[in-house]
Amino acid sequence: MLLTTASASLSYGQAEAEFAVLIGRTQEKIEASLDEYQAFLQETQSEKLEFVREINKLENSLVKLRQSELIARRNATEDKLQLDELQNRIKALDTQSQYSQGVLSEYLTNFESRIHISEDQLYLDPLRETRETLNNAPDNPADRLPILFQALELGIARQEALVGGRQFEGKAITPLGGVKTGQIAVIGPVAFFSDSEGTDAGPLRFNSGTIEPGLSTIALADAEKLRSVLATGSGLLPLDSSLGNALVLKRAKGTVAEHISKGGWVGYAILLLGAVAILVSLFKLIDLRSLSVREPGDLASIAKTAASGAIDDAKSKIESLKGPIHKMLTLGIEFSRTDTDTQLDAMESSILRFRPQLERFLPILATTAAVAPLMGLLGTVVGMIKTFTLIEVFGTGDAKSLSSGISEALVTTELGLIVAIPALIFHGIFTRIMRSRIGSMEQIATDFSRLVFAHKPSKETEQ
């Protein structure tokens, strides 16, 4: 038991010693670990400080970068706005350039077309050069506007030169077809010319197919005034408000004979028909005056005398009457002893014999009024056939060669209407007069027969 207890004590002591050793070792390890931990903490703390400093630097850099980004974005937005504004301004300027180019191009066209024909001698070459330069220039306003500005400057220089009138040496085509050199004066919209020889002077007009203007003939007194103005620079000028068109129209109009000759043979046939209608109308006027119908003022007295049986006395009362009314009343007096119907039939027979005298030559006027337009239509057809024949030969390019056929077509229609309208009017007037006179005679016959019947003695009175 003691042994066991000793052994147990010995074992417990050994264990306690070993445990103490182990505790010492453990304590050493713990202290070593703590030292290592402290060293690690110190190292970590120093590294953490470095990281913090780096993080702070990076955060500061990030803040600066974000600020730079905001500034860059704001600048980019402003730049975009400025770019959009510049693009809009560029578009507006481009639109203005295109508009300016269109306006100046139109000005150039108007300048070419509106200058006086006499000024072509001054501006034809510069304008041709401008046109050729424009045709060769790129389709870009920047390249074309300077060229158009040259044309504008040329027009402005022309306007400045025209203030108060402009005089220069040039050429003109005389009425006989020759070309003469002389002084040209452009005053407003008109131009005047006087040759160096002092023989021809007058206003200038457009001459088709030539560069030089044509000279219009004026009165000698006006030509002398024009030469004086061109020589001295002052005086009175002959002014044509139509700018030369009146003289051209006057020459183109021609005489009546020239106008009628354009109608050809159909026109002459229509005029012949019209002459016949005029002669018939004049004869008919004279004829109607001779065949007048005048009711006697004492018709009741004549009827009473005829009813009483005094035939000769009644006839003596109508001796002053002339023409058809005398013949009709004579028959009425002669048939006064018969019944009313017989008397009226006798008087109406006189009216029927008188009617052809009133109607004579009227069919000629009616025929003329109907035929003249048809003859005008015939002339129109003939003229159009002639025109189409000329078109087949010469084409449609030369209007002057076609004018003869067109003139014939229109002139014959005109002449046909000129003849037909008066003929129709006179036919209507003469027909109305004829019907009026026949109606007057019928009325006189009816009144005379009624008065004779009223004054006849009754059968009881005779018994």
UniProtKB/TrEMBL annotation:
Record-level GO BP terms: protein import
Cell compartment(s), UniProt: Cell membrane; Membrane
Pfam family, one: MotA_ExbB
Domain of life: Bacteria
Keyword Signal: no
Entry GO CC: plasma membrane
Residues passing through the membrane, by range: 265-286, 361-385, 405-430
Membrane topology: Multi-pass membrane protein
Matching InterPro entries: ExbB/TolQ_transport, MotA_ExbB_proton_chnl
Annotated ranges, domain MotA/TolQ/ExbB proton channel: 324-442
Coiled coil: 41-96
Key words, A-Z: Cell membrane, Coiled coil, Membrane, Protein transport, Transmembrane, Transmembrane helix, Transport
Similarity remark: Belongs to the exbB/tolQ family.
Protein name per UniProt: MotA/TolQ/ExbB proton channel family protein
